[in-house]
């Protein structure tokens, strides 16, 4: 009789898989700006934020660590550039807002645990699975997970800042497997990004599941993934694990 797959490790993306921001980025920025006497439209800040974030990520990948930046400096620059792009040229006026935003995003109150996340993590542990985090995030993540009561579910929290490489770089997934001392064939990753999570983990031989957000999945992505790898919501993970573990082990 063929041996059945028994998963040992489940690694997790965090943002928009287990947690999301309570408010859109633009609103968060606009509220803090207003508290410092600066009135800027949330929609302008939202658009400017994503432009600044993309530009900063391209120029200085993974928080600019290899360029000598700290993740804090990296984020303060993103805020300065965001306001600059939204029409605020006075960097001195923006500096205390940037400081405040950096603190606020490390505050668990800024984040919200997604529906079904806590129960799913609990059920996974009951099945005997070991859990860990693999996230493109900075050093603030550990404290956020502690504050939201999720940290206890994970053996370790591996951020891209700590690993030195962001997903989908295979090295961050390999580092997670090394820390857990498990083979890729008995590990699976859960996340909401097709290129970073779903494909990144598969590239090193792990299994993976794609958590679909509230928006419809891009048809090109939907058609390229087996239906059983797509989770319309987190509670769909448990039956998906049953199906996966019902399949023969491939080493
Ligand atoms: Mg994510």
Attribute tags:
251 residues, binds magnesium ion, elongated, 6-stranded parallel β-sheet, HAD-SF_hydro_IA_REG-2-like_cap, two-stranded antiparallel sheet, alpha/beta, HAD-SF_hydro_IA, 11 helices
Summarize the structure in short:
The chain is α/β, with parallel strands linked by helices. It contains eleven helices and eight strands. Helix 2 (42-59) crosses helix 3.
Describe this structure in words.
The protein is of the alpha/beta class and about 250 residues long. The protein is about 45% helix and about 15% strand. The chain has helices spanning about 25-35, 40-60, 70-85, 90-105, 115-125, 140-145, 160-165, 170-180, 195-200, 220-225, 235-245; strands at about 10, 20, 110-115, 130-135, 155-160, 185-190, 205-210, 230. A 6-stranded parallel sheet has the order 5-4-1-6-7-8, sandwiched between helices. Strands 2-3 form a two-stranded antiparallel ribbon. α10 (about 220-225) links the parallel β7 (about 205-210) and β8. The longest helix has 18 residues, at about 40-60. The chain is elongated. The relative contact order is 0.17. It binds magnesium ion. The site of magnesium ion (MG) has 7 residues, from loops.
